[in-house]
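step: validate -> pass
step: tokenize input -> pass
step: predict -> running
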Amino acid sequence: MRLTIIETGLPPLAIRDKYPGGYPLMFEHLFGAVAPDMTFETVALEKGDALPDPETLEAILITGSAYGVYDDVPWMRTLKEWIGFAAEHQVPMIGICFGHQVIADALGGDVRKSDKGWGLGRHTYQIERHPFWMTPDADRFSVGVSHQDQVLSLPPDAEVLAGNAFAPHAALVYGRAPIISFQCHPEFDDDFLRNLYEARRGNPLTQEQVDDAISSFSIMDDNLLVTKWMVNFLNSCIKG
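step: predict -> pass
step: emit ->
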């Protein structure tokens, strides 16, 4: 399987040199641990890459970003239109954080900055639906997060896979097309999360927010479990 990674953002400048491969390389390592035969290509929107014809792609993953769906950047409207076209042509698609939000926005949901503020640290989500590809089975999962924006109302034909009190729509599955999305960041290990939060200590995050976020790492992450679900989902789409 070839996964086309749509890179919509870069790590913060203060730590960018520590992660030269950016988010695409994090995803390559993550998926490679579960599906070693998977291959990857990256479309770097921030570097001016053009979006490919979705009909030529096997599967799509849209990364996180510091941008919001409401930001006026050159590629935002094009990406939303492209998502609609990919959904129309039934191309399997996964969204992570900003990817989760922009898919929801493109397909008719409401995405805005939440009045709950920053989501940070390890968040635990209760699973509300158990599709057949969601194996190994679980009642909940815990993954690191970093976001202010949220999906506040669902697009038509979208259903909640998992959520919690802070983010009720934290994982979605779509009926109109083979799409799933997650607000959390399974590609972020604790080293990256720690560096990310420290880079924002004092601005825009408070000392207490950063300390609390890092202390939550005592909860074991389920990054590989979520990755297995994503791989199972993509395999079911391609084989189905």
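step: describe -> Residues 120 and 181 are 18 Å apart (CA to CA).
step: cleanup -> pass
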